[in-house]
Design goal:
The relative contact order is 0.14. This protein is an alpha/beta fold. The protein has a seven-stranded parallel beta sheet, with helices on both faces. The chain has a three-stranded mixed beta sheet with strand order 12-9-14. The chain is built from eleven helices and 14 strands. The chain starts with a strand and ends in a 7-residue tail after the last helix. The structure holds UDP-4-deoxy-4-formamido-beta-L-arabinopyranose.
């Protein structure tokens, strides 16, 4: 089976690329390298072997997509190409809707034209908005995402729902990620955001290796056990396996399907800090700062539907996530450019 991975050089995409190659699939990667590096694809090739063809380009380029589908016997696609920095999305919503919504629709058009109707979409738990009742299930009511990034993902979900209603040939798996973190245990691939990371674990890992002086804890007055934000951190290797499991499920079925990909366990910021200190054996410099706009107190997944439908569950815990993330950061202090 040949699979198209848009954004396959990115953090999630490169780990799914590894899982696909390791499972014996041929892969075509399309990436514009706006927030990723071709080095990630080369390193995955070294790690997994297998056949991967790399195209540099924008998922909104319909002609390029048509050429790719004409040139390869693609039977399914997984869509990662998009922008994901929450604060950036607030500053530049037009770009976020253009890339995330426009790019998603461009891919759907190209797939339909090529007669390819199996799609796994990278969505986010942000679509639940500010919910009180935990854990979150796939039938938890959707809320109002706190920013254009989350709203753009929700818009693509809605387009996919309508597409599946309009055309029964579509077979769509929407994966709502909780908080991806960690890296392949080799330390050869990992998260390499442009500029200062906005997410907790990559930022804290850069503090741990001395690349940044201090971690700021955005608020310790939330209604949580220790007052800091609680999130469901899922290892990117577990997340990648969830994509393969979803692809297998869609092989036998059409229609629109949604799964939460989380561990079912939330950890606070302070618990993450203590975890990093446990793994490194060193104190991590941190200080409390005001809350960050748009943050919510807590969310974590009920991942039982993915367990039931896909036979999938996360197998790696917080210490695995932190040890693997730190190894990547220590071995690649400046990311892929280092
Ligand atoms: C986690 C916790 C912060 C940084 C976002 C997107 C989500 C997904 C993951 C893409 C919160 C606290 C953070 C820091 C801190 N995106 N924090 N200091 O906001 O839950 O989710 O990224 O897949 O869709 O919404 O993740 O890692 O930014 O924050 O105290 O320097 O860490 O307040 O409680 P978030 P995060």
């Amino acid at each position: 089976m040949t699979i198209l991975l848009t954004g396959g050089a990115g953090y999630i995409g490169s780990h799914v690329l590894f899982a696909c190659l390791a499972a014996g699939h041929e892969v075509v990667v399309l990436d514009d390298f706006s927030n990723s590096s071709p080095a990630a694809v080369s390193r995955v090739r070294e790690l997994a072997g297998g056949v991967v063809t790399l195209y540099r380009g924008d998922v909104r380029d319909g002609k390029l997509l048509a050429d790719i589908f004409a040139g390869h016997a693609i039977t399914a696609a997984m869509h990662f190409a998009g922008k994901k920095a929450v604060n950036e999305s607030v500053a530049d919503p037009l770009d976020y809707y253009g890339v995330n919504v426009g790019g998603g629709m461009s891919l759907m058009r190209a797939m339909a034209a090529a007669g390819v109707f199996r799609l796994v979409f990278s969505s986010t738990a942000s679509v639940y908005g500010e919910r009180v009742e935990m854990p979150l299930t796939e039938t938890s009511p959707l809320g109002e995402p706190a920013n254009p990034y989350g709203r753009s993902k929700m818009m693509v979900e809605r387009v996919l729902t309508d597409l599946c209603r309009a055309d029964p040939r579509w077979s769509v798996g929407v994966l709502r990620y909780f908080n991806p973190a960690g890296a392949h245990p080799s330390g050869r691939i990992g998260e390499d955001p442009l500029g200062p990371p906005s997410n907790l674990i990559p930022y804290a890992a850069q503090v741990a290796v001395g690349r940044r002086p201090q971690l700021l804890v955005f608020g310790n007055d939330y209604p949580t056990p220790d007052g800091t934000g609680v999130r469901d951190y899922i290892h990117v290797m577990d997340l990648a396996q969830g994509h393969l499991a979803a692809l297998g499920y869609l092989k036998e079925r059409t229609g629109h399907h949604v799964w939460n990909l989380g561990t079912g366990r939330g950890y606070s910021v302070l618990e993450v800090i203590r975890g990093i200190e446990r793994v490194t054996g060193q104190p991590l410099p941190w200080a409390v700062a005001p809350r960050r706009a748009g943050d919510i107190a807590q969310y974590w997944a009920d991942p039982s539907l993915a367990g039931k439908d896909l036979g999938w569950r996360a197998t790696r815990g917080l210490d695995d996530i932190l040890a693997d993330h730190l190894r990547w950061q220590q071995q690649n202090r400046e990311g892929y450019a280092g």
